[in-house]
Amino acid sequence: MERERSGRRAARGRPASSVRVPRDTESTSWASGPTVRARMQSQKTRDTAPELAVRRILHSRGLRYRVDCRPMPEFRSRADLVFRASKVAVFIDGCFWHGCPEHGRRQTKANSTYWRQKVARNAERDRRFDDALREAGWVPIRVWEHQDPADVADEIEATVRSRHNR
């Protein structure tokens, strides 16, 4: 992904430091077709509407945080919001990608076995990462994209402030 002239990363997708490696995927792609593949690759990985709504509320309450970063350098996974001083990592999970019990259980028409396994792997990875964060003294907060941003912000603020004032 190219950087804008100001040196900041582009508004959508992966961080500027992330480089997509070109591969021959035409014959091995999980997508049912090139249009589907292009649509799936264009999904935002940060700055989604639910994430921005929560960030606006938290910022207006005086909380400062890092966006889309690793809570700890040794981990590959990135949190949507990281409060380093309080050791709180926030994940605003998409219903489809993380298997929301309320919205994320719909069946796909193409490659349904693949997608069912993919979502299960995502959920398992989330559990392992949360456990690793807890072992390292962090508090992971996972919320769904459909939750009310004000309620989510209340939960995050209460956790951050209670841990910061220890």
Radius of gyration, in Å, reads: 17 Å
Q: What is the helix fraction of residues, given as a range? A: 25-40%
The CATH homology group name: VSR Endonuclease
- The CATH first-level class comes to Alpha Beta
Main sheet makeup:
4 strands, mixed
Average predicted local confidence, pLDDT: 81
Element string (H = helix, E = strand): HHEEEHHEH
In order across it, which strands form the biggest sheet? 1-2-3-4
Unreliable spans: 1-11
**How many H/I helical runs?**
5
Shape: globular
Strand content: 5-15%
Q: Give a count of the beta strands, DSSP E runs of length 2 or more.
A: 4
CATH topology: Endonuclease, Chain A
Q: State the separation between the terminal residues, measured CA to CA.
A: 41 Å
Number of domains: 1
Structural class: alpha+beta
CATH architectural name: 3-Layer(aba) Sandwich
Describe the structure.
- The protein is of the alpha+beta class and 166 residues long.
- It has a single domain (34-164), classed as VSR Endonuclease (Endonuclease, Chain A, 3-Layer(aba) Sandwich).
- Helices cover 39% and strands 13% of the residues.
- The protein contains five helices and four strands, in the order ααβββααβα.
- It has helices at residues 34-41, 49-60, 95-98, 112-135, 149-164; strands at residues 66-69, 79-83, 88-93, 139-144.
- It has a four-stranded mixed β-sheet.
- Helix 2 (49-60) crosses helix 5.
Question: What attributes does this structure have?
Answer:
166 residues, alpha+beta, Endonuclease, Chain A, four-stranded mixed beta sheet, disordered N terminus
Write a compact overview of the structure shown.
With 166 residues, the protein is of the alpha+beta class.
